[in-house]
Design brief:
This protein has 357 residues and is of the alpha/beta class. It has a single domain, classed as Aldolase class I (TIM Barrel). Helices cover 56% and strands 9% of the residues. It contains 16 helices and 8 strands. The chain has helices at residues 4-10, 24-32, 42-51, 53-66, 72-97, 117-130, 142-153, 166-185, 201-213, 229-244, 259-262, 275-284, 298-307, 309-315, 322-325, 329-353, and strands spanning 16-17, 37-39, 104-108, 134-139, 158-161, 196-200, 249-253, 270-271. It has an 8-stranded parallel sheet.
Length: 357
């Protein structure tokens, strides 16, 4: 019997599935369901270590012995590289079969470098050098937009992250295209570069829910309206991408409901649910249908626009400039979570190397 994910990935849709995890057991199953990509970041790396602590504890001790002067963060990030490269190896056959368009493992730049465009670009180049099917995550901040163009110009395939809105998607897609043109002018082949621009649809929903809980909605909402904000922004961004012909695909991430899968099928996009959400989609049994071009109910969109200035900023392609990205609520929340995961990874390394008495 064909399952929902297998129907999506094995059908005639241009939509593809990536796995929002680098855990080898989850990734292997997701590949069996048709996944052609995956991701790693500090949050995912921490969870992978916890899921197989005995193995990674031994590896952390070994790294510390090999690099006796390395600090906790350096050791932690080397572990993240190891986790990412194992996942990249699982995807290598897909990368070869898709000629670079899919089969990629996303590695995330260190959020502690978020204020330094040169440092982000340098780390992106380093990560890209680790395996031919690495794609590197750079945040959609004012600094990140500059780093994205520079990294692409230096040959890095980029996955834009910390991105929740149409203006962020547009600005970073344009930065990618500028980088591609610079690389072409220098005489480099760009045919096997494969860029994606993420919209973390569920995190836009989360931010508006935060505002609603604070009593900051400026107009009445109907039950369920807040489950559609990220989907509406994604569909608006997709229409802009199609109209302007950007050389990157949109990627949907940060799932909060199965509509963030079913409503986006049919577009030339990547859908990247965490493994637990893939299991929920499989269990629900809904057979996918083309819905990318089906608009969100205009009444829902109008209520969201009336209720939240931040949704107006998120939905309008010109609603924010790159300088505005840094202060957007979802940006600050997400960067703080990634920084917290860095701290947790440091703590894991510390506890292994210097156990509590």
């Amino acid at each position: 019997m064909t399952t929902p994910l297998q129907a999506m990935t094995g059908g005639d849709f241009p939509t593809v599935l990536w796995n929002d995890s680098a855990d080898p057991r989850e990734l292997a199953q997701s590949i069996a369901w048709g996944a052609v990509g995956a991701t790693c970041n500090p949050v995912i790396a921490v969870q992978c270590i916890k899921n197989d602590l005995a193995r990674w504890q031994e590896r952390i001790v070994q790294i510390a012995q090999e690099r006796p002067t390395a600090g906790e963060s350096e050791i932690g990030w080397q572990v993240e590289e190891k986790i990412s490269l194992e996942a990249a190896q699982l995807l290598a056959p897909t990368f070869a079969a898709h000629d670079g368009r899919n089969g990629r493992l996303s590695m995330q730049t260190d959020p502690r470098l978020a204020r330094d465009a040169n440092a982000l670009a340098d780390q992106a180049v380093h990560f890209s050098s680790l395996a031919e099917n690495i794609i590197v995550k750079i945040p959609a901040t004012s600094v990140g937009v500059r780093a994205i163009e520079e990294a692409v110009a230096r040959g890095v395939s980029v996955n834009v992250t910390v991105s929740f809105t149409v203006p962020q998607a547009v600005a970073t897609a344009e930065a990618i295209d500028r980088g591609m043109r610079r690389r072409e002018v220098e005489g480099h082949d760009v045919s096997r570069m494969g860029h994606v621009v993420t919209i973390m649809v569920g995190r836009l929903d989360d931010w508006l829910k935060d505002l609603d809980a604070r009593g900051e909605a400026e107009a009445a909402l109907h039950e369920g309206d807040l489950e559609w904000a990220g989907i509406a922004a994604f569909k608006r961004a997709y229409a802009v991408f199609q109209e302007r012909g950007y050389r990157s695909r949109l990627l949907s991430a940060a799932f909060r409901n199965t509509k963030q899968w079913s409503e986006l099928i049919g577009g030339d996009v990547v859908i990247s649910p965490p493994f637990a959400w893939q299991e929920k989609i499989q269990a629900a049994g809904e057979i996918p249908a083309r819905r990318m071009d089906v608009p969100v109910d205009p009444d829902i969109v109008e209520r969201l626009l009336a209720a939240f200035p931040d949704f107006r900023r998120a939905y309008d392609p010109d609603g924010m400039t790159p300088t505005d990205f840094d202060d957007f609520g979802a940006t600050r929340k997400t960067l703080r979570q990634f920084l917290g995961a860095d701290e947790e990874l440091d703590q894991i390394v510390r506890d292994i190397l210097i156990p509590a008495p």
